Amino acid sequence: MSASTQAPAQAAGAAPPGPAPRRRRRLAPKTIGYLLILPTVVVLAGVQGYPLVKLALLSVQDLTQRELFSGLPAPFIGLGNYAKILSDPEFFLVVLRTVAFTAANVALTLVLATVLALVMRAASRWCRLLLTVVLICVWAMPQVVSTLVFNWLFDYEFGVVNWLVGRLPGVDMNGHDWYANTISGFGVITMIVVWGAIPFVAITLYAGISQVPKELEEAARVDGANGRQIFFRVTYPILRPIYTIVTVLSVIWDFQVFNQVWVARGGRPEPQYQILGVYSFVRAFGVNEYSLGAAIAVVTVVLLLVFTVFYIRQSLRQGEID
Amino acid sequence: MTSHTSTPPRRPRPGGGRIAANVVGVVVSVLMIFPVYWMVLTAFKPGDELMTYTPHFATLHPTLSNFSRAIHAPHFGDALGNSVIIAFSTMIIALVLALLAAVAIARFRWYGRRAFIFAILVVQMVPMSALIIPLYLMLNSIDQVNKLSGVVLTYLAFVLPFSIWTLRGFVAGVPAELEEAAMVDGCTRLQAFFRIVLPLVFPGLVATSIYALIQSWNEYIMAYVLLSDQQKETLPVWLVSFVSAHGVDYGALMAGATMMALPVVVFFAIIQRHVASGLTAGAVKG
Amino acid sequence: MKHRLMAAAGLAAVLLGAAACGNGSGAAGSTGKIDTKGDKNATGTLTVWLQVDAQSSWPNAVKAATTSFHKKFPKVKVKVSYQAWNDHLTKLDAALTGKHVPDVVEMGDTETTSYLANGAFRDLTDSKNLFADSANWNSGLAASCTYEGKVYCVPYYSGSRIVFYRKDMFAKAGISTPPKTLAELMTDGGKLNKKYGSDPKFSAFYMPGKFWYSAMSFVRDAGGTIATKKGDKWVGGLDSPAAIKGLTQWKALSDQLSKASKTSDEANPQQYTVMAQGHVAMMYGLGWEGGSVYADGNGGNPKLKDSIGSFAMPSGSGKEAMQSFAGGSDLAITAKSQHPDWAAAWTAAMTSQSNEKLLMKAGNVPNTTTLLEQAKSDPALSAAASSATDSWMVPISTGWPKVEKSSILQNGLSAIATGKKSVADACKEMNQQVEQALNGS
Fold first, then answer.
1. In this model, does residue B237 exceed pLDDT 80?
2. Are residues C306 and C359 in the same domain?
3. Closest residue on chain B to A68 (Cα)
4. Domains held by chain C: number
5. Which of A88, A192, C103, C257 is the most exposed place for a label (fewest CB within 10 A)?
6. Quick check: is C86 in a domain?
7. A285 CB near a chain B CB, below 8 Å?
């Protein structure tokens, strides 16, 4: 940037250093802090605060379409919606499935994205450029279309993957249905989700890695550390805050995956493909049970808090978010 | 890209590592780009090669008819304009607000800081499907339904938390001593921020801006619900019109999607250059 | 539904707060008499939400309706916007809470019930005569507009499924005339299998395992039903001997004649794209699907242009034809519409006889039996018309969306098709789940 050209002029502007008496009092740091977050607080409180309160209220009411269309008040039913969810034996299965699904997706995303970010750093300039362009193209592909294309790739009739695998000697993939088996079905869904999630995480991590002074890694290398040691002892500690946020965000997103499953199963997910996002749609939003949906949303938030609080607390302890 | 002047310890251990990295990079690129390639390829395929039992991995008869069908579909121009307005406004406003808030968190001590950090995290956890109706009611009450500004406001709320978190990490990563040193040299706090912190935070700003841009460029459901006039629809909403109960117009859909992805890639190509110079300006000379 | 209007109504009102930002009189405006005579000086905008199909397949009908509407209200602007099937109800729900309410909305005929029951639409019982030939509305569609004896919407169009077949393949397998009974169809399928069976992808009749519209037609053909209302409770019919017989026939067809996936439905992939590949001799599809097999640009195969024929799906119990599901759409006027007169006039124009004929040309079944009878004499439409004379409808219950959203039928049928469960077991299970959903748990 042009920092160097501006420097002299402005240094001159601030010329008389000592003598001139302070014209006005400096704002207290506290006040500056409040001023800086004010616009954000206005937007978030306005756009999300009210709907969140509304959501919490909804979860203890029985709002049907009648109230929605007429504007009549919805009856208060206390914790009825919560009781309904928590007494549904399937709900716990769904949560377990979702937790496993999230864990697998987040872990895969983070590992692969880290590898990619490191590769980008180590690779030649042209290769780095190639990778960034690929990542951006993947990221920029509209989700409506990417899920459709993946569906196409794994289609049992027109599937490009079936055709390719079928080329192997002795393999008959004619009409192979990847979703007939739950494990291979979730494998494909995980692939779609991770593929879509990698660009964001890899680019963010790479941005972070490029902030790590190369000298630090060089010094470690001179001290005889190998690549793995350098990453875990030097790079990772510096990147920790960024890992915290991408991990937390990935958990939040993967926990609520809906579209990929919905489209992959043609809008009719079988019971074994019900994860939380699908479950809440089938039980609540798809059938206009808004209050039940609100209660499921609140439970989702609580579950996510449980999962993330451990992580956040660790960050707090290490002084990242002090 | 030309500002690489200071490169003394350029390749301490040349050869092996870099070649391996390049190989991995190319393999991963090919694998990851395939769905994108398939989209672009389909956009250029003639009708009889679209869906076949033996897939066509390239076409000898490229055609522009899919593109022409997509461009001439109703409201392409409107949708493009609306998407540009919405996505870029969201991105710019989000960057400014998030940077301010990130500095507030990383550099100042104030009561309620932790609560604030925690709050913006919790906000992200609420499933979108549950928020649609409450959000609509809220925007309706402040007369922001069926307006582009209402959509921008909504997107801001969705991209701000991540932007703040990310930028906070980057601002915190700049040692406060650097700033203090600059202030000892006579810079005001603001000058120190612009000259020392901003260049070092640049990669974070780039990552954040891409995030904000892509999120608001590709978002579908809120735009669909909030904007009822067809003249006000955004590109993702426009794109879905190729999927009807009477089948999917794959050619036009893929052509539309290709055209839709293009501006994002171009935007990135432009700021990509600044990332490089931003990096060297900050890290090497700082 | 548990409407416990408890003594805590006051508390509820406080809790709800700003939610009551509607005018609280959703029903108040919906009582006046509708008058479509016209007003040369009326100005304003009429907002119409149609589904995207009208934009892609019959824009001429929309144009004609608006032109004819303008003869009555020349100064009123008509704004038509097109909705995607996937999320249009979410958008409608949101819009109905606020100020930007569309005046006319298209609804899928399996989607209407909860909207009729909850006061979203204007009561048109006394205004039926404003709409063309309303005494002879298609029974399936009319049922989807009726709730507790009152009419809340206007039948728009329906669909009917018929068999599309490869004339060339039939000829090569030595079949001269299309089958007239289900038994004949199975025999012909056997002949086709013999001729083309060496092709591992060949299906004499393409029948995916989750194609519930077809399976339920077999149930209906054998004399069964999904459910019927007795008193104020729904009683399931899927475990009846008739239903089991129908599904056994369906499974036989699926087992013997189809290589389609047992775990997919007719839309993923679109079955016409499969037929376009040339390894399918018959499929059970909607009117427009036949043309799509050889259309250019959507996965069709133009080379098949002259080899696709159609016939009505033959009955397994001696009827004229197996009756199709009446999948279609209705047009409704929202209760909150400020201009019900305009809305009714436009709806009447859109569903006029001349307009319905335009819809027929686009492959749809018209909204009245009068037109249906006329269609029977048109060779291009006769198969569709005879499959729709007594077409069936899903149970008109607010619980039905739950049956669809939780894919009860699809999953049960898939279990039958794959052989994971016996027909009788799967029927019992589906029946129990359907009853539970319809009666609310």
1. yes
2. no
3. B133
4. 2
5. A88
6. yes
7. yes
Give the angle C151-C152-C156 at the CA atoms, nearest 5°.
100
* Domain's final residue, options C343, C359, C386: C386
- By the CB < 8 Å criterion, does A320 face chain B? yes
Listed by number, the residues of chain B in 16-55 with a beta carbon closer than 8 Å to a beta carbon of chain A are: 17-18, 20-22, 24-26, 28-29, 32-33, 35-36, 38-39, 51-55
Regarding whether C260 and C403 lie in a shared domain, the answer is yes
Do both C278 and C407 map to the same domain?
yes
Answer yes or no: is C7 within a domain.
no
Q: C350: domain range?
A: 35-160+326-386
pLDDT of residue A105: 97
Query: C356 and C385 in contact (C-beta within 8 Å)?
Result: no
Residue with tokens 């092709």: C199
Residues 50-109 of B with CB under 8 A from C: 50-53, 65-66, 69, 74
Last residue of a domain, one of C346, C364, C386: C386
- Whether residues C250 and C359 share a domain: the answer is no
**Do C78 and C102 belong to one domain?**
yes
Interface test with B, best of A27, A61, A144, A212 (most B CBs within 10 A): A144
Q: Which of A70, A74, A268 sits opposite C22 (nearest CB)?
A: A70
Sign (positive/negative) of CA torsion C83, C88, C93, C98? Answer: negative
From CA C107, how far away is CA C89, in angstroms rounded? 9
With beta carbons under 8 A apart, name residues in chain C contacting B141. Answer: 18, 21
Measured CA to CA, the distance from residue A142 to residue A322 in angstroms comes to: 38
Least Cα distance to B254 among C269, A189, A146 occurs for A146
CB contacts < 8 A, A to B, total 303
Residue whose C-alpha is closest to residue C419's, from C254, C271, C282:
C254
Write down the H helix ranges in chain A.
3-13, 29-44, 50-58, 65-70, 80-86, 89-122, 125-140, 143-153, 160-167, 182-209, 214-222, 227-230, 236-255, 259-264, 276-283, 290-317
ipTM surpassing 0.85: no
Residue C15 lies in a domain: no
Q: Are C387 and C285 in contact (CB under 8 A)?
A: no
Residues C255 and C308 in one domain: yes
Is a pLDDT exceeding 50 seen at residue C439? yes
- Whether C282 and C428 map to the same domain: the answer is yes
pLDDT at position C25 is 37
Q: Given C8, C119, C274, which is nearest A66 (Cβ)?
A: C119
| Per-residue pLDDT, C355 | 96
Nearest CA in chain B to A38: B101
Is residue A44 within 8 A of residue B123, CB to CB? The reply is yes
Other beta carbons less than 10 A from residue B15's beta carbon: 8
Task: Report if residue C96 sits inside a domain.
Answer: yes
- Nearest by CB to residue B137, choosing from C19, C55, C289, is C19
Q: Is C173 within 8 Å of C195 (Cβ atoms)?
A: yes
Confidence of residue A192 (pLDDT cuts 50, 70, 90): very high
Q: Examine the pLDDT at C324 and tell me if it is beyond 80.
A: yes
Query: Domain A46-317 carries which CATH code?
Result: 1.10.3720.10
Residue matched to tokens 């077949």: C165
Q: How far is C171 from chain B (nearest CA, A)?
A: 25
Mutate to test the interface with A, among C2, C11, C14, C16 (most CBs of A within 10 A): C16
CATH code of the domain in which C239 resides: 3.40.190.10
Domains of chain A, residue spans: 46-317
Average pLDDT over residues B24-45: 95
**Residues C198, C186 share a domain:** yes
Q: Collect all residues of chain C within an 8 Å Cβ-Cβ radius of residue A158.
A: 269, 273
Tell me the CA distances in angstroms from A298 to A81, A307, B130, one per residue in order: 11, 14, 9
Question: Could B136 and C98 be called an inter-chain contact, meaning their C-beta atoms sit closer than 8 Å?
Answer: yes
Per-residue pLDDT reduced to its tens digit, C168-197: 999 999 999 999 999 999 999 999 999 999
